[in-house]
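Exam prep: given the inputs below (a chain plus pyridoxal-5'-phosphate), describe the expected output before reading on.
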Amino acid sequence: MSPLSDRALQTRPFHVMALLARAHAVRARGLQTVSMVVGEPDFPTPAPILRAAQAALAQQGQHYTDALGSMALRQAIAQDYADRDGLAIDPGRIAVTAGASAALLLIMGALINPGDEVLIADPGYPCNRQFILAMGGVPKPLVVSPEHHFAPTAEQVAAAWGPRTKALLLASPANPTGCLLPLEQARAIDRVVREKGGWFIADEIYLRLCFQAKPKSLLSFGDHLISVNSFSKTYSMTGWRLGWMVAPAAVIEVVERLAQNWFISPASLPQQAALAAFTPETQAVVETYRQAYAAQAAFVLPRLEALGFLVPARPDGAFYAYCDVSALTQSSYDLCLTACDELGVLLAPGRDFSDHQAERYLRVSFPKPIEVLSEGLDRLERYFLGRKARQTDSSV
Ligand SMILES: Cc1ncc(COP(=O)(O)O)c(C=O)c1O
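Solution:
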Protein backbone atom coordinates (compact mmCIF):
# COMPACT_ATOMS: atom_id res chain seq x y z
CA MET A 1 0.00 0.00 0.00
CA SER A 2 1.44 3.41 -0.85
CA PRO A 3 1.83 5.76 2.12
CA LEU A 4 -0.94 8.03 3.32
CA SER A 5 -0.49 11.79 3.06
CA ASP A 6 2.03 13.51 5.32
CA ARG A 7 -0.55 16.16 6.14
CA ALA A 8 -3.10 13.60 7.28
CA LEU A 9 -0.54 11.65 9.27
CA GLN A 10 0.71 14.81 10.95
CA THR A 11 -2.76 16.01 11.92
CA ARG A 12 -2.95 16.02 15.70
CA PRO A 13 -5.70 14.04 17.37
CA PHE A 14 -7.62 15.70 20.19
CA HIS A 15 -6.14 14.53 23.50
CA VAL A 16 -9.61 14.67 24.88
CA MET A 17 -10.51 11.68 22.67
CA ALA A 18 -8.15 9.56 24.77
CA LEU A 19 -10.04 10.74 27.85
CA LEU A 20 -13.39 9.91 26.31
CA ALA A 21 -12.12 6.38 25.58
CA ARG A 22 -11.00 6.04 29.23
CA ALA A 23 -14.42 7.27 30.32
CA HIS A 24 -15.97 4.13 28.76
CA ALA A 25 -13.79 2.02 31.05
CA VAL A 26 -14.82 4.15 34.05
CA ARG A 27 -18.52 3.64 33.26
CA ALA A 28 -17.93 -0.08 32.75
CA ARG A 29 -16.71 -0.11 36.39
CA GLY A 30 -20.11 1.26 37.39
CA LEU A 31 -19.16 4.91 38.02
CA GLN A 32 -21.42 7.41 36.23
CA THR A 33 -19.32 10.05 34.49
CA VAL A 34 -19.95 13.79 34.62
CA SER A 35 -18.95 15.41 31.35
CA MET A 36 -17.60 18.94 31.56
CA VAL A 37 -15.59 18.45 28.44
CA VAL A 38 -17.60 18.90 25.26
CA GLY A 39 -18.21 22.39 23.85
CA GLU A 40 -21.82 22.00 22.89
CA PRO A 41 -25.14 23.14 24.30
CA ASP A 42 -27.13 20.66 26.33
CA PHE A 43 -30.44 22.34 25.38
CA PRO A 44 -32.64 21.01 22.58
CA THR A 45 -32.95 22.74 19.23
CA PRO A 46 -35.87 25.20 19.71
CA ALA A 47 -39.29 23.77 18.76
CA PRO A 48 -40.05 26.29 15.96
CA ILE A 49 -36.91 25.14 14.14
CA LEU A 50 -37.93 21.48 14.52
CA ARG A 51 -41.43 22.28 13.25
CA ALA A 52 -40.00 24.12 10.23
CA ALA A 53 -37.83 21.08 9.46
CA GLN A 54 -40.83 18.73 9.72
CA ALA A 55 -42.93 20.97 7.47
CA ALA A 56 -40.13 21.16 4.90
CA LEU A 57 -39.74 17.39 4.89
CA ALA A 58 -43.47 16.85 4.46
CA GLN A 59 -43.77 19.27 1.56
CA GLN A 60 -41.08 18.46 -0.92
CA GLY A 61 -37.96 16.54 -1.77
CA GLN A 62 -34.61 17.92 -0.75
CA HIS A 63 -32.42 19.36 -3.50
CA TYR A 64 -29.20 21.27 -3.93
CA THR A 65 -29.52 24.95 -3.13
CA ASP A 66 -27.30 27.73 -4.46
CA ALA A 67 -23.67 27.11 -3.53
CA LEU A 68 -23.81 30.18 -1.24
CA GLY A 69 -27.05 28.98 0.37
CA SER A 70 -30.69 29.87 -0.23
CA MET A 71 -31.33 33.57 -0.79
CA ALA A 72 -34.20 33.41 1.73
CA LEU A 73 -31.79 32.38 4.50
CA ARG A 74 -29.10 34.85 3.45
CA GLN A 75 -31.71 37.62 3.59
CA ALA A 76 -32.90 36.44 7.00
CA ILE A 77 -29.31 36.49 8.33
CA ALA A 78 -28.80 39.99 6.88
CA GLN A 79 -32.03 41.16 8.56
CA ASP A 80 -30.77 39.78 11.89
CA TYR A 81 -27.62 41.95 11.62
CA ALA A 82 -29.87 44.93 10.87
CA ASP A 83 -32.05 44.20 13.91
CA ARG A 84 -29.32 43.45 16.44
CA ASP A 85 -26.31 45.40 15.26
CA GLY A 86 -27.90 48.17 13.20
CA LEU A 87 -25.81 47.00 10.24
CA ALA A 88 -26.88 47.01 6.60
CA ILE A 89 -25.28 43.83 5.26
CA ASP A 90 -25.93 43.01 1.61
CA PRO A 91 -27.17 39.37 1.55
CA GLY A 92 -24.90 38.98 -1.49
CA ARG A 93 -21.95 39.21 0.97
CA ILE A 94 -23.21 36.23 3.00
CA ALA A 95 -22.24 32.63 2.29
CA VAL A 96 -24.11 29.86 4.12
CA THR A 97 -21.86 26.92 4.97
CA ALA A 98 -21.72 23.54 6.73
CA GLY A 99 -21.07 25.09 10.14
CA ALA A 100 -18.43 27.67 10.97
CA SER A 101 -15.97 24.87 10.20
CA ALA A 102 -16.69 24.89 6.46
CA ALA A 103 -16.70 28.70 6.50
CA LEU A 104 -13.20 28.75 8.01
CA LEU A 105 -11.95 26.19 5.51
CA LEU A 106 -13.42 28.15 2.58
CA ILE A 107 -11.91 31.40 3.86
CA MET A 108 -8.47 29.82 4.06
CA GLY A 109 -9.01 28.39 0.57
CA ALA A 110 -9.89 31.85 -0.69
CA LEU A 111 -6.98 33.72 0.97
CA ILE A 112 -4.01 31.43 1.47
CA ASN A 113 -1.22 30.45 -0.90
CA PRO A 114 1.29 27.83 0.25
CA GLY A 115 3.75 29.46 2.64
CA ASP A 116 1.41 32.30 3.65
CA GLU A 117 1.15 32.83 7.40
CA VAL A 118 -1.97 33.32 9.48
CA LEU A 119 -1.71 34.71 13.01
CA ILE A 120 -3.82 32.85 15.57
CA ALA A 121 -4.09 32.93 19.37
CA ASP A 122 -2.45 30.45 21.75
CA PRO A 123 -4.52 29.24 23.57
CA GLY A 124 -7.12 28.97 20.84
CA TYR A 125 -9.54 26.77 18.96
CA PRO A 126 -7.42 23.79 17.86
CA CYS A 127 -9.01 23.24 14.43
CA ASN A 128 -7.90 26.68 13.21
CA ARG A 129 -4.37 25.50 12.57
CA GLN A 130 -5.70 22.58 10.50
CA PHE A 131 -7.75 24.85 8.24
CA ILE A 132 -4.59 26.87 7.57
CA LEU A 133 -2.37 23.82 7.10
CA ALA A 134 -4.89 22.28 4.69
CA MET A 135 -4.09 25.12 2.25
CA GLY A 136 -0.34 24.82 2.76
CA GLY A 137 -0.41 27.89 5.00
CA VAL A 138 1.63 28.40 8.14
CA PRO A 139 -0.21 28.96 11.45
CA LYS A 140 1.67 31.50 13.58
CA PRO A 141 0.48 31.30 17.19
CA LEU A 142 0.63 34.46 19.29
CA VAL A 143 0.96 33.72 22.97
CA VAL A 144 -1.89 35.60 24.66
CA SER A 145 -2.27 36.28 28.35
CA PRO A 146 -5.09 36.72 30.85
CA GLU A 147 -4.02 40.37 31.39
CA HIS A 148 -5.17 41.09 27.83
CA HIS A 149 -8.30 38.91 27.95
CA PHE A 150 -6.42 36.04 26.31
CA ALA A 151 -6.28 38.04 23.07
CA PRO A 152 -3.29 39.65 21.34
CA THR A 153 -2.60 43.34 21.68
CA ALA A 154 -2.29 45.51 18.57
CA GLU A 155 1.44 45.86 19.32
CA GLN A 156 1.82 42.09 19.39
CA VAL A 157 0.04 41.76 16.05
CA ALA A 158 2.23 44.49 14.52
CA ALA A 159 5.43 42.87 15.81
CA ALA A 160 4.45 39.39 14.59
CA TRP A 161 3.36 40.55 11.13
CA GLY A 162 5.93 39.46 8.56
CA PRO A 163 6.27 39.67 4.78
CA ARG A 164 4.37 36.39 4.33
CA THR A 165 1.60 37.16 6.84
CA LYS A 166 -1.77 37.26 5.15
CA ALA A 167 -4.35 37.29 7.91
CA LEU A 168 -5.21 37.31 11.59
CA LEU A 169 -7.89 34.93 12.87
CA LEU A 170 -9.41 35.59 16.30
CA ALA A 171 -12.51 34.29 18.02
CA SER A 172 -14.52 36.67 20.22
CA PRO A 173 -15.71 35.39 22.65
CA ALA A 174 -12.97 32.81 22.35
CA ASN A 175 -12.70 29.09 22.89
CA PRO A 176 -11.25 27.90 25.35
CA THR A 177 -11.45 31.08 27.45
CA GLY A 178 -14.88 32.62 26.81
CA CYS A 179 -13.14 36.02 26.74
CA LEU A 180 -14.49 38.79 24.57
CA LEU A 181 -12.02 40.91 22.64
CA PRO A 182 -12.57 44.39 24.14
CA LEU A 183 -13.81 46.85 21.55
CA GLU A 184 -10.86 49.25 21.80
CA GLN A 185 -8.36 46.37 21.59
CA ALA A 186 -10.24 45.05 18.53
CA ARG A 187 -10.25 48.51 16.92
CA ALA A 188 -6.50 48.92 17.42
CA ILE A 189 -5.89 45.44 15.99
CA ASP A 190 -8.11 46.23 13.01
CA ARG A 191 -6.07 49.39 12.34
CA VAL A 192 -2.81 47.41 12.37
CA VAL A 193 -4.16 44.70 10.07
CA ARG A 194 -5.41 47.32 7.62
CA GLU A 195 -2.06 49.16 7.67
CA LYS A 196 -0.37 45.86 6.85
CA GLY A 197 -2.84 45.24 4.02
CA GLY A 198 -3.99 41.96 5.59
CA TRP A 199 -7.29 40.32 6.45
CA PHE A 200 -8.96 40.35 9.86
CA ILE A 201 -11.08 37.22 10.28
CA ALA A 202 -13.34 37.37 13.35
CA ASP A 203 -14.91 34.13 14.52
CA GLU A 204 -18.07 35.36 16.22
CA ILE A 205 -19.86 32.06 16.82
CA TYR A 206 -20.26 32.83 20.56
CA LEU A 207 -21.15 36.51 20.08
CA ARG A 208 -24.85 36.07 20.90
CA LEU A 209 -23.98 34.08 24.04
CA CYS A 210 -22.47 36.85 26.17
CA PHE A 211 -23.53 36.90 29.81
CA GLN A 212 -23.89 40.63 30.55
CA ALA A 213 -23.61 43.04 27.65
CA LYS A 214 -24.90 42.20 24.20
CA PRO A 215 -21.91 43.24 22.11
CA LYS A 216 -22.25 44.11 18.45
CA SER A 217 -20.54 42.29 15.62
CA LEU A 218 -17.07 43.50 14.70
CA LEU A 219 -18.54 43.87 11.20
CA SER A 220 -19.39 47.38 12.43
CA PHE A 221 -15.72 48.23 11.68
CA GLY A 222 -16.53 48.12 7.98
CA ASP A 223 -17.01 45.99 4.90
CA HIS A 224 -13.36 44.88 4.85
CA LEU A 225 -13.75 42.52 7.81
CA ILE A 226 -14.55 38.81 7.46
CA SER A 227 -16.86 37.41 10.14
CA VAL A 228 -17.68 33.75 10.71
CA ASN A 229 -20.80 32.63 12.54
CA SER A 230 -22.92 29.54 13.10
CA PHE A 231 -26.27 28.18 14.18
CA SER A 232 -24.44 25.52 16.22
CA LYS A 233 -24.07 27.22 19.59
CA THR A 234 -26.62 30.07 19.63
CA TYR A 235 -29.47 27.84 18.42
CA SER A 236 -28.37 24.49 19.89
CA MET A 237 -27.92 23.13 16.36
CA THR A 238 -24.45 21.58 16.48
CA GLY A 239 -25.53 18.41 14.64
CA TRP A 240 -27.36 20.27 11.88
CA ARG A 241 -24.07 21.60 10.50
CA LEU A 242 -25.07 25.10 9.48
CA GLY A 243 -23.12 28.33 9.69
CA TRP A 244 -22.18 31.31 7.58
CA MET A 245 -19.64 33.98 6.80
CA VAL A 246 -19.92 37.63 5.90
CA ALA A 247 -17.07 38.79 3.68
CA PRO A 248 -16.20 41.44 1.10
CA ALA A 249 -17.82 40.81 -2.29
CA ALA A 250 -14.48 39.89 -3.90
CA VAL A 251 -13.95 37.14 -1.30
CA ILE A 252 -17.51 35.82 -1.67
CA GLU A 253 -16.99 35.57 -5.42
CA VAL A 254 -14.10 33.09 -4.99
CA VAL A 255 -15.78 31.40 -2.02
CA GLU A 256 -18.73 30.68 -4.32
CA ARG A 257 -16.44 28.94 -6.83
CA LEU A 258 -14.74 26.92 -4.09
CA ALA A 259 -18.08 26.03 -2.46
CA GLN A 260 -19.50 24.87 -5.79
CA ASN A 261 -16.55 22.52 -6.22
CA TRP A 262 -16.04 21.35 -2.66
CA PHE A 263 -19.60 21.03 -1.39
CA ILE A 264 -22.00 21.87 -4.29
CA SER A 265 -24.25 23.45 -1.67
CA PRO A 266 -24.92 23.49 2.07
CA ALA A 267 -27.55 20.90 3.12
CA SER A 268 -31.06 22.06 2.21
CA LEU A 269 -33.09 20.79 5.21
CA PRO A 270 -31.09 22.66 7.88
CA GLN A 271 -31.38 25.81 5.77
CA GLN A 272 -35.17 25.50 5.60
CA ALA A 273 -35.32 24.81 9.33
CA ALA A 274 -33.01 27.70 10.19
CA LEU A 275 -35.40 30.21 8.65
CA ALA A 276 -37.39 29.76 11.87
CA ALA A 277 -34.36 30.80 13.96
CA PHE A 278 -35.11 34.47 13.51
CA THR A 279 -38.75 34.40 14.64
CA PRO A 280 -39.68 36.05 17.95
CA GLU A 281 -40.69 32.63 19.33
CA THR A 282 -37.23 31.12 18.74
CA GLN A 283 -35.49 34.27 19.90
CA ALA A 284 -37.40 34.04 23.20
CA VAL A 285 -36.25 30.43 23.63
CA VAL A 286 -32.58 31.11 22.91
CA GLU A 287 -32.68 34.10 25.25
CA THR A 288 -33.57 31.66 28.06
CA TYR A 289 -30.60 29.52 26.97
CA ARG A 290 -28.27 32.53 27.09
CA GLN A 291 -29.49 33.42 30.56
CA ALA A 292 -28.98 29.81 31.67
CA TYR A 293 -25.32 29.88 30.50
CA ALA A 294 -24.83 33.09 32.50
CA ALA A 295 -26.37 31.43 35.58
CA GLN A 296 -24.20 28.33 35.08
CA ALA A 297 -21.10 30.54 34.86
CA ALA A 298 -22.10 32.34 38.07
CA PHE A 299 -22.55 28.97 39.79
CA VAL A 300 -19.39 27.26 38.52
CA LEU A 301 -16.75 30.00 38.69
CA PRO A 302 -16.64 30.63 42.46
CA ARG A 303 -16.70 26.90 43.18
CA LEU A 304 -13.83 26.27 40.78
CA GLU A 305 -11.79 29.04 42.37
CA ALA A 306 -12.47 27.65 45.85
CA LEU A 307 -10.98 24.36 44.64
CA GLY A 308 -7.79 26.00 43.38
CA PHE A 309 -8.91 25.97 39.73
CA LEU A 310 -8.06 29.66 39.25
CA VAL A 311 -9.79 31.52 36.43
CA PRO A 312 -7.38 34.37 35.66
CA ALA A 313 -9.63 35.92 33.02
CA ARG A 314 -13.31 35.38 33.63
CA PRO A 315 -15.38 34.36 30.61
CA ASP A 316 -17.63 37.06 29.14
CA GLY A 317 -19.66 34.52 27.21
CA ALA A 318 -19.85 31.05 25.66
CA PHE A 319 -19.73 28.25 28.27
CA TYR A 320 -16.08 27.76 29.11
CA ALA A 321 -13.72 28.53 31.99
CA TYR A 322 -10.00 28.24 31.27
CA CYS A 323 -8.51 27.32 34.62
CA ASP A 324 -4.97 27.65 35.91
CA VAL A 325 -4.40 24.49 37.96
CA SER A 326 -0.68 25.00 38.54
CA ALA A 327 -1.24 25.25 42.31
CA LEU A 328 -2.58 21.68 42.22
CA THR A 329 -0.42 19.90 39.67
CA GLN A 330 2.62 20.07 37.40
CA SER A 331 0.56 18.59 34.57
CA SER A 332 -3.02 19.54 33.77
CA TYR A 333 -3.15 16.46 31.52
CA ASP A 334 -2.38 14.18 34.47
CA LEU A 335 -5.02 16.01 36.48
CA CYS A 336 -7.56 15.36 33.70
CA LEU A 337 -6.60 11.66 33.70
CA THR A 338 -6.99 11.43 37.48
CA ALA A 339 -10.32 13.29 37.39
CA CYS A 340 -11.52 10.84 34.74
CA ASP A 341 -10.22 7.59 36.21
CA GLU A 342 -10.82 8.24 39.91
CA LEU A 343 -13.75 10.67 39.94
CA GLY A 344 -15.49 10.09 36.62
CA VAL A 345 -15.27 13.84 35.89
CA LEU A 346 -14.29 14.73 32.34
CA LEU A 347 -12.31 17.92 31.72
CA ALA A 348 -10.40 19.12 28.63
CA PRO A 349 -6.61 19.39 29.00
CA GLY A 350 -4.76 22.58 28.07
CA ARG A 351 -2.64 20.70 25.55
CA ASP A 352 -5.65 20.55 23.20
CA PHE A 353 -5.66 24.36 22.95
CA SER A 354 -2.10 25.47 23.53
CA ASP A 355 1.56 24.74 23.02
CA HIS A 356 2.54 27.38 25.56
CA GLN A 357 1.93 26.63 29.24
CA ALA A 358 -0.45 23.87 28.21
CA GLU A 359 0.23 21.91 31.39
CA ARG A 360 -0.80 24.87 33.51
CA TYR A 361 -4.36 25.08 32.20
CA LEU A 362 -7.45 23.00 31.56
CA ARG A 363 -10.87 23.90 30.18
CA VAL A 364 -14.10 23.34 32.07
CA SER A 365 -17.13 23.32 29.78
CA PHE A 366 -20.34 24.10 31.66
CA PRO A 367 -23.45 24.09 29.42
CA LYS A 368 -25.15 21.58 31.74
CA PRO A 369 -27.95 21.58 34.31
CA ILE A 370 -26.85 22.96 37.68
CA GLU A 371 -27.44 19.51 39.34
CA VAL A 372 -24.95 17.91 36.95
CA LEU A 373 -22.40 20.67 37.48
CA SER A 374 -22.92 20.42 41.20
CA GLU A 375 -22.26 16.66 41.15
CA GLY A 376 -19.03 17.16 39.16
CA LEU A 377 -17.85 19.94 41.44
CA ASP A 378 -18.72 17.95 44.58
CA ARG A 379 -16.56 15.08 43.36
CA LEU A 380 -13.65 17.40 42.58
CA GLU A 381 -14.08 19.11 45.94
CA ARG A 382 -14.06 15.85 47.90
CA TYR A 383 -10.90 14.81 46.09
CA PHE A 384 -8.89 18.05 46.21
CA LEU A 385 -9.98 19.25 49.62
CA GLY A 386 -9.43 15.69 50.94
CA ARG A 387 -5.98 15.65 49.37
CA LYS A 388 -5.13 18.98 50.99
CA ALA A 389 -6.23 17.64 54.39
CA ARG A 390 -4.12 14.49 53.89
CA GLN A 391 -1.09 16.62 52.95
CA THR A 392 -1.59 18.83 56.02
CA ASP A 393 -1.89 15.74 58.27
CA SER A 394 1.26 14.16 56.92
CA SER A 395 3.25 17.39 57.38
CA VAL A 396 2.30 17.64 61.07
C1 LIG B 1 -14.24 29.04 18.18
C2 LIG B 1 -14.94 28.01 17.36
N1 LIG B 1 -15.04 28.19 16.03
C3 LIG B 1 -15.66 27.29 15.25
C4 LIG B 1 -16.22 26.14 15.77
C5 LIG B 1 -16.92 25.17 14.84
O1 LIG B 1 -18.31 25.34 14.92
P1 LIG B 1 -19.36 24.70 13.92
O2 LIG B 1 -20.13 23.68 14.69
O3 LIG B 1 -20.24 25.85 13.50
O4 LIG B 1 -18.62 24.13 12.77
C6 LIG B 1 -16.15 25.90 17.16
C7 LIG B 1 -16.71 24.67 17.76
O5 LIG B 1 -16.53 24.37 18.91
C8 LIG B 1 -15.50 26.87 17.97
O6 LIG B 1 -15.40 26.71 19.30
